[in-house]
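Hi all, posting the design record for the shared folder.

TITLE: backbone redesign
STEP: 1 of 1
STRUCTURE INPUT:
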């Protein structure tokens, strides 16, 4: 997926260069391998490229066409054994080169058009996304300014209320202080009129003591002498007319204080809490027809770069081992190996085995050699088939790849990466599907030994390949 994202962001010329470099890299050859094997590989490449061309699958068509041209025009002529190739084969290969070069050029033009449309679309999407982000950023900035303005207004109101509260407290304190410094007035409006019956008080009255002080115990109710220091009793002990003290609710506050909001910022979000951006999640990108077309071209063409290591799916008939054993039964009874070629076709990036070819051969209890290989090549060409592997028996042994088998598998796998080796061991009722590992390809490709010879078992040179095989 990461490769796909990176590939999509490339401009058209960079994409084409990457595909071309990939094709040239796969066209590299080993000088220790006979040129005829690579010539057969070239035929296989042309067959596959033609299939992709007919299906208008331009990415693999371009890769295979460039790979073929680079192999035939640059790699094979530098091979030490290429001078041993007959002129007839060279001429035939050169004729195919012209077709493949034209095919590569046409595929390149198609891909340039597709990649340009994809690149332009990507640029438009990025511009739209950038404008959306800038607009969202402006909206967030406006909301933030509004939020700060509201906070300033609320803070100013809180400050005014706080100042008013302080002023009210100061005013109340001032009034209390003034009351403490003055005498209480004589309240007589609610008192009965008793002054007319009061005796006249003179300086010779017996209530006046010789020391100049009055005897307040004999003064009538409501009379306050003015020449004595005034004492304001506690409100809890003030005697009111009628002798009843009014009930005072001390839990209540003055009305002007009750109107204040004890928490003027209670409805305002804390400054420590960042504003939450508004994200419209309903604006999910929609796929259009051109998106589907571009994605389809990309997915089909980039299939060789998937998690399977770049290998395509190989479909094998479920009864192929049974059919092959029937043909090999006479040799098996005599403890002689039998081999056959697995041939098929490429369709929609899937390899499918459609034919089992039994060539002329000679065998022993532990080996089998194909004779007159030109007849096999003619049969493949006549039926427009691709060689996708081989099958052979181990009449008296288990299923595995011997050193000779690994060298034989190399000749198939170097032509087609997905090529497999099927080993049928009837004595032990075993059937194995094998291919060389990357380490095995390097080791066997550089090995100049023949016949049975030892190889290191670790790292393994071959492996079971059932993960890429589906049975029909």
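Okay, here is what came back for every position:
SEQUENCE:
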């Amino acid at each position: 997926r990461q490769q796909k994202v990176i590939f999509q962001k490339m401009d058209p010329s960079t994409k084409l260069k990457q595909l071309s470099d990939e094709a040239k890299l796969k066209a590299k050859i080993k000088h220790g391998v006979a040129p005829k094997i690579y010539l057969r590989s070239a035929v296989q490449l042309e067959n596959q490229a033609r299939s992709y061309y007919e299906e208008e699958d331009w990415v693999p068509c371009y890769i295979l066409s460039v790979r073929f041209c680079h192999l035939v025009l640059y790699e094979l002529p530098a091979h030490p054994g290429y001078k041993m190739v007959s002129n007839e084969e060279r001429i035939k290969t050169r004729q195919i080169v012209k077709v493949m070069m034209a095919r590569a050029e046409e595929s390149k033009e198609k891909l340039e058009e597709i990649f340009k449309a994809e690149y332009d679309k990507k640029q438009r999407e990025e511009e739209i996304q950038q404008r959306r982000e800038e607009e969202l950023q402006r909206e967030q900035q406006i909301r933030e300014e509004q939020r700060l303005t509201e906070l300033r207004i609320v803070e100013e109101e809180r400050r005014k209320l706080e100042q008013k509260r302080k002023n009210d407290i100061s005013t109340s304190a001032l009034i209390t202080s003034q009351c403490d410094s003055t005498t209480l007035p004589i309240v007589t409006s609610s008192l009965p009129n008793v002054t007319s019956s009061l005796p006249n008080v003179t300086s010779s009255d017996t209530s006046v003591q010789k020391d100049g002080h009055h005897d307040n115990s004999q003064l009538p109710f409501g009379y306050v002498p003015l020449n004595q220091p005034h004492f304001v009793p506690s409100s809890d002990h003030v005697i009111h007319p009628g002798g009843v003290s009014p009930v005072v609710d001390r839990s209540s506050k003055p009305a002007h204080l009750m109107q204040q909001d004890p928490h003027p910022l209670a409805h305002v979000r804390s400054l420590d809490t960042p504003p939450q951006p508004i994200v419209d999640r309903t604006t999910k990108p929609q796929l259009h027809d051109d998106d589907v077309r571009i994605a389809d071209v990309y997915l089909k063409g980039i299939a060789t770069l998937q998690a399977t290591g770049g290998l395509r799916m190989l479909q094998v008939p479920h009864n192929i081992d049974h059919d092959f054993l029937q043909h090999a039964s006479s040799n098996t009874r005599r403890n002689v190996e039998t081999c056959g070629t697995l041939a098929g076709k490429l369709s929609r990036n899937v390899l499918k085995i459609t034919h089992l070819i039994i060539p002329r051969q000679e065998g022993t209890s532990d080996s089998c050699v194909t004779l007159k290989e030109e007849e096999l090549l003619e049969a493949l060409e006549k039926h427009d088939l691709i060689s996708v592997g081989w099958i052979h028996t181990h009449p008296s042994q288990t299923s595995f790849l011997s050193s000779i088998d690994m060298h034989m598998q190399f000749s198939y796998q170097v032509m087609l990466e997905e090529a497999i080796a099927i080993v049928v061991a009837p004595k032990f009722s075993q059937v194995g599907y094998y291919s060389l590992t990357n380490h095995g390809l390097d080791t066997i490709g550089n090995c100049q030994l023949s016949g049975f010879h030892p190889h290191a078992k670790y790292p393994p040179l071959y492996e079971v390949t059932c993960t890429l095989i589906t049975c029909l």
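COMMENT: Residues 181-308 have pLDDT under 50 and may be disordered.
Let me know if anyone wants the other runs.
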